[in-house]
From TrEMBL:
GO terms for biological process: cobalamin biosynthetic process. The active site is at E303. It is an enzyme of class 2 (transferase). The lineage of its organism: Bacteria, Pseudomonadati, Pseudomonadota, Alphaproteobacteria, Rhodobacterales. This is Nicotinate-nucleotide--dimethylbenzimidazole phosphoribosyltransferase. Keywords: Cobalamin biosynthesis, Glycosyltransferase, Transferase. Pathway: Nucleoside biosynthesis; alpha-ribazole biosynthesis; alpha-ribazole from 5,6-dimethylbenzimidazole: step 1/2.
Length: 335
């Protein structure tokens, strides 16, 4: 399914990834200037619609087939006591997703998106990154390939989500390795650890940073990341290959995405940040990626929930852009 079976082939795909269609972008910009509103009156919705139009290659696109994919993984680093919840919650929540009982199921329904969950070897957690690399190269490639293969080429919007007890520690380690700083700069409360838990998370991240010297981004993801992060990275790369725009979710999703941007500048040009997570370091990570979140609702759930909530904003932008009358069509005098 996935057109790569080595890291170097994956890097080649990133290097050769398609760009937005300049003609469609220019056409959408011209159309936007003719719509029945004062110039700029739809604010950021206007830029969003033009961005979306460029990636879809149409000056008046529609969003008819949004896809949400939730990847679930378990983490050896949970042995270090980094979460307020036990690791078995990951598989329990996968069952909840499959039965339609989670927040993301309701958001998918609300915004007319399909939702699938991919559980990634939950009974075989990654290795504890304070002791050894989280994944072997084969495990890492398998997770990247699962993510790539999960994307429906016929989708017109992708929201990657995740579920994985312990993965805020993992994302903090990836963030620190990619962007610099120490554990304390990148850890947050996750599912609700107390002050001692927060200090422990910082210590665990520092131990991971000390053990794994490589700062090569894909090596950072293999050694300090997790299967669901690798799968999200694979899915975001696949979306780019299919010219499917992506709405990023919170801290963990953004950490996975950041690996791609650090591997190849511009790799996230087809992505918009759905929201600002309550996880403290998310804002800094988004700033480093030059991404301004669409929403800021204090969410720290994961599952793709913040990205899914932002589907409504993007749908609104595209509906206005493609559905509004022009001044000429409506017989309204322009300024
Ligand atoms: O997306 C976020 O920004 C986010 C922030 C805090 C927690 N989470 C979710 O909570 C879980 C990880 O929290 P923790 O405390 O176990 O590291 C994982 O399943 C994530 O989906 C997600
Ligand atoms: C209950 C629960 C639901 C979640 N969804 C995403 N991460 C989660 C973590 C917990 C603990």
């Amino acid at each position: 399914m996935a057109p790569f079976s080595t890291i170097s082939e994956f890097k080649t795909l990133l290097a050769n990834a398609p760009e937005a269609d300049d003609d469609a972008t220019a056409g959408a910009r011209r159309r936007n200037a003719q719509l029945t509103k004062p110039p700029g009156a739809l604010g950021r919705l206007e830029e969003l619609a033009i961005w979306y139009a460029g990636w879809r290659g149409s000056d008046s696109p529609a969003i008819d087939a949004p896809q949400i994919v939730v990847f679930a993984g378990n983490h050896g680093v949970c042995a270090q006591g980094v979460s307020a919840f036990p690791p078995e919650v990951t598989v329990q929540m996968v069952a909840n997703f499959e039965h339609g009982g989670a927040a993301i199921n309701q958001l998918a329904k609300t915004f007319g998106a399909t939702m699938h969950v991919h559980a990634l070897e939950l009974d075989r957690p990654t290795a504890d990154f304070t002791q050894s690399p989280a994944m072997s190269e084969a495990e890492f490639i398998a997770a990247l390939r699962t993510g790539w293969g999960a994307v429906n080429p016929a989708a017109d919007l992708l929201v990657p989500g995740e579920m994985g007890i312990g993965n805020t520690t993992v994302a903090a380690a990836v963030g620190a390795a990619l962007f610099g700083g120490i554990g304390a700069d990148w850890v947050g409360r996750g599912t609700g650890v107390d002050d001692a838990g927060l200090a422990n998370k910082a210590r665990v991240v520092d131990a991971g940073l000390a053990r794994h010297a490589s700062r090569e981004p894909l090596e950072v993801l293999r050694c300090l990341g997790g299967r669901e992060l690798a799968a999200m990275a694979g899915a975001i790369a696949a979306a780019r290959a299919h010219r499917i725009p992506v709405i990023l979710d919170g801290f963990i999703c953004t950490a996975a995405a950041a690996v791609l941007e650090k591997t190849r500048a511009g790799a996230l040009d087809h992505c918009v940040a759905g929201h600002l997570s309550a996880e403290g370091a998310h804002g800094r990570m988004l700033d480093s990626l030059d991404k301004v979140p669409l929403l800021s609702l204090g969410l720290c759930l994961g599952e793709g929930s913040g990205g899914a909530a932002a589907i409504g904003v993007l749908k609104a932008a595209v509906a206005c852009h493609s559905g509004m009358a022009t001044f000429a069509e409506a017989g309204v005098s322009d300024g």
